[in-house]
């Protein structure tokens, strides 16, 4: 594709502006680790929420979502449960509050709140650091593969996708490493505004160019229906025959079973709390537990409507106007290329530059967030603790520069080895995160669980997830989740029962500080005997009701823009009514009950 000079000017202006803004703000970040990694806990919660949403609005994920919407239609609204997107609801309702009450810098440091000090706690911190670094490398590889595929279509030079990715990585890495969280948050707010304008414009273009009748003719029966049975029952024969092969390759023929597995895995994973990445970092950077909850709620509120306007818009444009061309290419068509193909053919000059700049912003947000979140685990929990506890503050910041650079190099190397976005995404969210669930679920909800149980549970899950692609190459990572869960659960329970429980002092201090619900009977009695007023902050039943309502609320936010773009007005009205009703319930039963601490 040959971009117009206007589009190239818009893209170049955006890249230079982002770099300048990031470097200008970087002067605030070099004071110490608190300023560099958490921005001194001074950034408003709404800015952190928009930044978090921008970090999740990534280009590789958006390319995947467009390919899923193209193939599965409205049923694709369920597929992000594989991540799962509804973990933001658990964070919003109660987990962000629990986590922020610890008042620490990293998830590894948080473990001292739960398990105290000693050999077991040190092993716990070590395994979390390893997990944080491994998952960061996976996210970097995921972003690398997505931006390379995307750039190779749009930019006019005959350069390989991987070389394009290396060029864009260089720009992003420069301002992130230099500016820390200040640069990340404020550039991501700018990026989110650009991305939202571009995404809404794409949706409006699709509404104007495509009629409901054209969509019906280009798609099989059931494509425009949200609900499903055990079988997917989407037959693309005669329309785009290769889509049937895509469905078989994805392993989604038993769609009902897949959604049940995603829900099962997603609930357990969500109750385990955030993995040690940018999501956790933004929670810890808020000013208070109440602001942490509001920040997590804002992510769902602002992200889904613009993102799915673009996803649905590009999908229907490709279906109606490119269907015959895609059909003619047969099995050789790469469905992850639908997003750039649709932009290439249907977005006008000027807006194309803005949209590409916005998608570059989305990519840069994902990379920036991962790069800023991971190094703190090594610097704070390894280097500072064991090697240079008395070093000056700027030394720790400089070490973080080096760690960030090494992570980029390793992530790029992994990205060069893997072939598709879906391959990386399934490994990260299906396997790696699957090994995280058991130990981290138990740490919140079972008083007897101790540091050694956490260490062995995490090690069992991490090792199993890393060797899974080698031992079970033909098994979908989602179906391997129960095995990963059982192995991690066995390591957690065995490690716990073979060692002594944590001391009453550690357990009571944690319970009084965090106020979790679950199987805390003996500890709860001791704490409430001295501080009965804490019982007001422990309301498990109310939290679980709010979670259920919140998942429905979030799903309605996803399907509303899809109904709007495909112009199904009764579906849009139904989704709006559900959104309004669930919003009112959450206002009364969650938001109004948040309290200052």
TrEMBL record:
Biological source species: Lacimicrobium alkaliphilum
GO annotation, cellular component aspect: plasma membrane
Topology in the lipid bilayer: Multi-pass membrane protein
Chief subcellular location: membrane
Subcellular location, record wording: Cell membrane
The family this protein is said to belong to: Belongs to the sodium:solute symporter (SSF) (TC 2.A.21) family.
GO biological process: proline transport
PROSITE patterns referenced in this protein's UniProt entry, alphabetically: NA_SOLUT_SYMP_3 (PS50283)
Signal peptide boundaries: none
Swiss-Prot/TrEMBL keywords: Cell membrane, Ion transport, Membrane, Sodium, Sodium transport, Symport, Transmembrane, Transmembrane helix, Transport
GO molecular function terms noted in the UniProt entry: L-proline transmembrane transporter activity; proline:sodium symporter activity
Catalytic activity: L-proline(in) + Na(+)(in) = L-proline(out) + Na(+)(out)
Record's protein name: Sodium:solute symporter
Domain of life per record: Bacteria
InterPro entries, per the entry: Na/Glc_symporter_sf, Na/solute_symporter, Sodium:Solute_Symporter
Residue stretches spanning the membrane: 6-25, 45-66, 78-99, 120-144, 150-177, 189-210, 254-275, 296-322, 354-378, 399-418, 424-442, 454-472, 478-500, 544-563, 569-586
